[in-house]
């Protein structure tokens, strides 16, 4: 079972306290984008064996969305951070690098 901490209200709880929202840091294309860009936004998702960045919502608490870095193999949670971030904060990247040398996810290293 995952244990997540909401970065907004500080509540730590089991994954049943939260609601998974899929992959984090997706780039949404606006009007006038190509069909290929829109198709990529709608259908192409990472499904890694290892480090993954995800969106979560504190459904049974403050109701806010946030991002979490975790390992899909071990269910280890490396940290959570604001959903308004364009990339994981340095502290989480440092934790990931220390625990999973050579990790990468999309354009993040």
UniProtKB/TrEMBL annotation:
**UniProt cross-references to InterPro entries, sorted A to Z:** SoxD (IPR006279), SoxD_sf (IPR038561)
Pfam families membership: SoxD (PF04267)
GO process terms (BP): tetrahydrofolate metabolic process
Q: What GO molecular functions are on record for this protein?
A: sarcosine oxidase activity
Query: Could you tell me what this protein is called?
Result: Sarcosine oxidase subunit delta
């Amino acid at each position: 079972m995952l244990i997540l901490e909401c970065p907004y209200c500080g509540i730590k709880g089991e994954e049943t306290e939260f609601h998974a929202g899929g992959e984090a840091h997706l780039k949404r294309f606006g009007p006038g984008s190509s069909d290929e860009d829109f198709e990529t936004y709608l259908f192409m998702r990472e499904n890694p064996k290892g480090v993954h960045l995800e969106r979560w919502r504190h459904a049974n608490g403050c109701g806010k969305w946030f991002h979490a870095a975790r390992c899909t193999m071990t269910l280890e949670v490396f940290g959570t951070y604001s959903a308004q971030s364009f990339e994981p904060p340095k502290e989480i990247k440092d934790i990931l690098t220390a625990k999973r040398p050579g990790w990468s996810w999309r354009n993040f290293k």
